[in-house]
Amino acid sequence: MFLGAALAALFIALTAGPAAAADFPARDSRYHSFTEMVAEIKAVQAANPGIVKLFSIGKSYQGRTIWAAKISDNVATDEAEPEFLFDSLHHAREHMGVEQSLYLLNTLAKGYGSDSQIKELVDSREIYIIFALNPDGFEYDLTCGGSHAPYCAWRKNRQPNAGTSAIGTDLNRNYGYRWACCGGSSGSPSSITYRGKAAWSAPETRALRDFVLSRVIGGRQQIKSHITFHTNGKLILWPYGYTKTDIPADMTALDHAAFVAFAKGMAARNGYEAEQSSDLYITDGDQIDWMYGTQRIFSFTWELYPPETSTVWGDHYPADENIAAQTANNRAALVYFLRFGWCPYSVLGRIQADCGPLFDDTEINRGWSLNPDGTDTAVATSRFSRGDPEPTTQNGLRSQPDRASSGRYAFVTGRLAGSTPNTNDLDGQTTLASPFVQLPPVPGRLSFRYVYSHGPSSASDYLKVWIEDEATKARTLVWSKAGTAGTIGASWQTATAVLTPFGGKRVRIVIRAVDAGPNSLMEVLIDDVRIERPPA
Ligand code: BZS
Ligand code: CA
Ligand code: ZN
Ligand code: CA
Ligand code: CA
Fold this sequence. Notes:
The chain is built from twelve helices and 24 strands. The chain is α+β, with helices and mostly antiparallel strands. The protein has two domains: 5-349, Aminopeptidase; 360-531, Jelly Rolls, CATH 2.60.120.200. Mean pLDDT is 95; it is low at 1-16. The strands form five sheets. The protein has an eight-stranded mixed sheet with strand order 1-2-4-3-7-10-8-9, sandwiched between helices. Strands 11, 13, 16, 19, 22 and 24 form a six-stranded antiparallel sheet that branches. The chain is elongated. The chain has helices at 2-16, 34-47, 96-111, 116-124, 135-140, 203-214, 253-270, 287-295, 312-316, 323-328, 331-340, 351-354; strands spanning 52-59, 65-71, 83-88, 126-130, 216-217, 220-221, 223-231, 235-238, 273-276, 298-304, 358-360, 369-370, 384-387, 392-394, 397-400, 410-413, 428-433, 437-438, 446-454, 462-469, 475-482, 493-497, 506-515, 522-531. Bound molecules: L-benzylsuccinic acid, calcium ion (3 copies) and zinc ion (ZN). Zinc ion (ZN) binds at residues 90-91, 94, 172, 230. Residues 91, 172, 230, 237, 241, 277, 280, 283, 286, 288, 301, 303 line the site of L-benzylsuccinic acid (BZS).
């Protein structure tokens, strides 16, 4: 009996891990199986240890490793370089994506010693590739019988679902941004677009999420641009998938313009078609919606070769003779993406204004601190908060605008509508501080958008902006505006200040509003804070 129990335990130990490796049939042997993929990336690392470092972002449901590589100079060190993310194989049957990721790895690693453009990209950026987000599906897809054996045309992961024999979650419907919102996924476990029982119910999406969140440093997301490789249709898709609206409230007009221009720039280089992802069909809980919606990463889905065919087999199993030409066809578009993706606003010709050391449209939390000195006297409801300003009118005059300067959010005092003291009105002092930012030797200007409205006031009311030197803690006043006797209505204005005295320093921006004078309504809003690049 003990022996029986021990044998049973041994049997469980031996069978609990991933099943034996599956492979492509001889006619498609140029495709990499999961095992061959792992061997290939290990060989590339071994041949290029100075610039390629493999790591794992976590495990699949069945316990397989989700492999990733970092490619950069000084690869073991986290340098202050813009970061890029690529991933492939959310969907098991989309094997060309793995080939595209391996092509990219090889292009960067092999080109480093011989191609000056590749060397420059690798030296100045930190590039991450996640090769197969869905390794369980990868293996399973090569294990079916029937007329297309060994292919299964499997899409989802291999996670069981309670109360049914139907297996798997569509990983590209399981992300936690507007999950299940809009009819772009299925609640039925037997569907190929089953979204899972909750957002992030799949270990594979959690692993990707946790890796991306680990790249938020000092409140700022280091990954600037991202491509997820899918098949098929030869398309470049930008967010959102959840809505057909071109510029919904959770996208700024500027970001939309950058998405369109950047996608078209890539498409011009590989002959794909660029469009909003919902132009294909509505999806919810998909990856790029989460990447942009919560992280403001310029995130694209590439639908690789082949073009749309009439069958699932034609769509997903092009002969392996196509791999070399079709992955190489994307070289120029990938180089372009790596060149401009550190700041896609540069594609719009906005490099000076929008690609400096700091650009914050306040649509997500980018690491500002409230009350940094602990000296603020305004109560919580009256202080600055980041949110959607509610319109307020007092004595026929608009005191708080109903719109942020960009997108839907701004920093706003007493955010809610109304003029109740200490609730909607600022009373006392409230202070915001940006994260610390390294300025170049010759910095561009500080610019920001603001509203400063008030009833009859005096110079003891003010809005002031300082630059604080991290090393000395010294604060220098660079801009200020004081209250006046008249009544001033709300309108968005642009302010600028010269930063040349702070060249080469690590600094932060400190913004303070004080309502200490006559007890009348005072409102302050701040949006679109930029430390620009100097004019070229
Ligand atoms: C695919 C198609 C893909 C999907 C399309 C899509 C991706 C739409 C991202 C929107 C956003 O499976 O390759 O259905 O996931
Ligand atoms: Ca580096
Ligand atoms: Zn896909
Ligand atoms: Ca804004
Ligand atoms: Ca207010």
